[in-house]
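G.,

No rush on this.
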Amino acid sequence: MSDTMTAVRNQVSEKLIERAQTDGEFRALLKSEPHKALQQLLGVDPVPSFKINVIDEKPGEINIVLPAEIAQDELPDELLDLASGGTSFSAFILYGHERVRKPAK
């Protein structure tokens, strides 16, 4: 996975975890329906065809996740736009995917 894609994945994960730690309803939604949680957080589900596993870590456990290699041609346009530097993650979160898309040339 490219450094840019890793950064985007880490930012999205960080925001999901941050919200789940402060919002019990969101945490429950993330565990039961992760795609709906992404939609709620980002305004779009950037990976609708991907299976999302959410692991609720227990006291005394440490889970280490080794991300799969993902080819850029497997990713949806919204996520590629975000990763390509055309949109900052902050703008994506604040204004949604429709308002931060690159203008047509």
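When you get to it, here's the other one too:
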Amino acid sequence: MDPNSDFEFRDRILFGNPIDWQHRKLPPGCSERFDTLNIDGLEALLKAEFMLPQSTMNGSPRVQDFADFLRAMRAQSIDFYLEGFTFDPSHKNGEGRVYLEGILREGPYSPEIGFAFAKFVAPWKPDELSLEPELLRAWWD
């Protein structure tokens, strides 16, 4: 499957507005990071084919695994957010794909949520893991 190349639509989902890639201060072909992607945005990216459900990055869970976990947490009125990046449209691969490499929750959470998070990320052995009173975060590099 070829990825969607509607970069403006992708950027609206990820950043809230389109990025003027030509007038950025970074060199062409660079990536842009995000850390606020919720289940609604993830589902929109999947539907628009900016991601493949079976994709993984640096040993992270598959996109579908992230989606399943975010949906389960949303059902308990808890939102987690995904971290990742996407490339400038002029990048050599010319794709509009979005890559996930982390998951986080800032703010209070119950012990059950903390346990569910730890259980979710453990099989993928994150490179960075925070299990703090106001922060749950796993990241793969």
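Residues 7-132 form one domain. The chain has one domain: 7-132.

Enjoy the weekend,
O.
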